[in-house]
Write a structure and sequence with these properties.
Blueprint: E1 17-23, E2 25-26, E3 38-39, H1 46-64, E4 71-76, H2 84-97, E5 105-110, H3 114-117, H4 120-126, E6 130-136, H5 140-145, H6 152-165, E7 168-175, H7 182-193, E8 199-204, H8 212-218, H9 227-243, E9 248-250, E10 253-255, H10 262-268, E11 272-276, E12 281-286, E13 289-295, H11 299-309, E14 313-319, H12 321-332, E15 339-340, H13 341-348, H14 354-362, E16 366-369, E17 373-376, H15 378-381, H16 384-392
Parallel strand pairs: 1-4, 1-11, 2-3, 4-5, 5-6, 6-7, 7-8
Antiparallel strand pairs: 8-10, 9-10, 12-13, 13-14, 15-17, 16-17
Length: 393
């Protein structure tokens, strides 16, 4: 199956409608991770969870109404712990509840362990046409530090296998690791690029509250690069990826033209998406408004709730126009293409504050693209949260 050209679906004024499915289980919890992921030492009852996913889809379909799906994303957790028949059943369920055209992007996150890579052909047969590999580092020392269960050899085998099996693939790397120099990162990034991937997700290591790394960092036992050094690493990342034709289209994501993640573009362009599974979030247009949904995070509690109530939703908040405008700004300014000003003005009911906009432009943090769009400059991306806060006031 070929994936439809990016210009056909989910771009321009229509950001698309995505379906996100959250598989919450991992073989091990990484010390930097604050995602909704859980380790279970007994086998997960996958048929029971599939039945619950399908039941929740019906409930969310009742909220969303009939829609045409432009992308599907299976995230986690570690979706590559699912059996291929589990993936097939979930994709079949989505197709029963919404219209799923041929050729849309269907992504699965996967770890590059040898056990999980053996399932790749089964996922492809089930309909997955894009895989996102959590490689995270290309040296064994740092892979061990990051708590990963694979080594570099397994990672590279998985990359080669993914390129052989799937029409599209991406992999993640984490940088700004303790004691990492710019020279080391440049070598590692150039090596990553040499594997001829068309998409890279490159994240700075952040210390999140509630993780093991947070405790170590607070105790002074884990030191990460400071703001200035992180900025140097970020700038080196932009230079290297741009030079080889994979510029940043979002603050942490790089792709060759046409290989951008269509599902994630739906988020950043503030489209609608259905969230299915434990801890999944969604945004759904309801009449002239939009609702934010969230489900129970604990997998077993979610499962029980779905079986008893037909859905795992614990939040269903109607967003007013001001809240939608703020979310549009927050998401859109992450993109190189920036924010559609007319859409933001329609939601917010106002123009950007001229004094604030002029200040940010004069200091080189934002720029206009004609009269229709507003975006962050590379300097603005380094202080993105502050720029968003300033413009949203």
């Amino acid at each position: 199956m070929q994936i439809a050209p990016l210009s056909v679906i989910g771009d321009g004024m229509d950001p698309g409608f995505g379906v996100y499915v959250h598989w919450p289980f991992c073989a091990a919890k990484c010390p930097y991770c604050d995602f909704n992921s859980h380790v279970r030492h007994q086998p997960v009852d996958q048929p029971r969870f599939v039945a619950a996913f399908l039941k929740e889809m019906a409930a969310v379909r009742a909220l969303s109404g009939p829609r045409t799906v432009t992308s599907i994303f299976m995230g986690g957790g570690t979706p590559s712990l699912m059996e291929p028949q589990t993936v097939e059943a979930i994709l079949d369920g989505i197709a029963r509840h919404w219209h799923v055209p041929d050729g849309i992007e269907i992504t699965m996150e996967a770890n590059p362990s040898s056990v999980e890579a053996t399932r790749f052909r089964g996922y492809r047969a089930a309909g997955v046409n894009r895989v996102s590999l959590g490689v995270q580092a290309l040296n064994d020392r740092d892979l061990k530090f990051l708590g990963r269960l694979h080594d570099v050899e397994n990672a590279l085998k998985a990359v080669r296998l993914a390129r052989e099996i799937f029409p599209r693939m991406s992999f993640d790397l984490i940088y700004a690791r303790p004691n990492q120099t710019v020279e080391e990162w440049e070598r590692e990034l150039k090596e990553a690029v040499s594997y001829a991937v068309d998409h890279l997700s490159l994240y700075q290591l952040t210390i999140e509250e509630g993780t093991p790394f947070y405790g170590l960092h607070k105790a002074g036992k884990l030191v990460v690069p400071d703001g200035e050094q992180s900025a140097v690493l970020y700038e080196a990342t932009q230079e290297i990826t741009a030079a080889i034709g994979m510029p940043a289209y979002e603050v942490s994501n790089h792709a060759r033209p046409g290989a951008e993640s269509r599902h994630n573009l739906t988020y950043w362009r503030y489209g609608d998406y259905a969230g299915i599974g434990p801890g999944a979030h969604g945004r759904l247009a309801i009449g002239s408004g939009k609702i934010a949904t969230a489900t129970e995070r604990n997998p077993e509690a979610w499962l029980q709730r779905v079986e008893e109530c037909g859905e795992g939703l614990i939040e269903r908040e109607l967003l007013d126009f001001e809240a939608q405008a703020d979310e549009l700004l927050l998401m859109g300014l992450r993109l190189r293409e920036g924010v559609d000003l007319a859409r933001w003005q329609t939601l917010s009911g106002r123009d950007p504050d001229p004094a604030r906009e002029e200040f940010l432009i004069e200091h080189g943090f934002i720029e206009r693209i004609g009269n229709s769009r507003l975006r962050c400059t590379p300097a603005g991306m380094l202080i993105l949260d502050a720029v968003v806060a300033d413009l949203a006031c």
